[in-house]
């Protein structure tokens, strides 16, 4: 196992060295899919097999995979480990989910991170709401945050206050209501950085100010067609600056990534992802991204 170094990560695309995942358990096979805003009741056995294959890909590409094993009864969304915390170079900031059914996941994440010797450097509390899916690192000193039904002004301000002493700034971007407050439209539902100079985007829902910022930075924008938005075409996990992982069944987006010079791995996620609105970025919490090992 790779030891925990002082540096964790403030990059979305440097080589993935250590990553946290959570294997689906009984809580994921929800009896009331509509309550959880799932497309159907996941088949647990099939979901676990899909997850095992997903993890095999991560390992084959050089990542040390560790499991989130803290018990979380009745927390179906707990498999989406990206959301309860933000990892910075100094440690983790515990977030505060905007989805009521996810409240409590941050406490379980705190226990798991403590077991992995990842320090907690701050927490959102009270009405400060934010979920990890609404944020990504634009560069090592700039965090992009979406203002959504899951992440509010108080949460964004709290993040800014926690990051500013470390020399980092927050840029916030408004997302549309889309399918309403019960649906999940995170900022990362419409964008995934795949290299320092490239991102996969769904242009119809990308905030104008973010589009302008990406263009100002000279980013290559790889567009997802309308037909592949619902099948999570924009949800792409960078494994290193030239290799990425996406959900199987998005051939146009996959081809566009390959044409742009990327090696693309795919996984089957019929139960794991398509029924539960969570792709490869949602299923992983990168703990260490770094060009070279310590």
From TrEMBL:
The UniProt record lists the keyword RNA-binding: no
Keywords noted in UniProt: Hydrolase
GO biological process, one term: L-arginine deiminase pathway
GO terms assigned for molecular function: arginine deiminase activity
Record Gene3D superfamilies: L-arginine/glycine Amidinotransferase, Chain A
Protein name: N-Dimethylarginine dimethylaminohydrolase
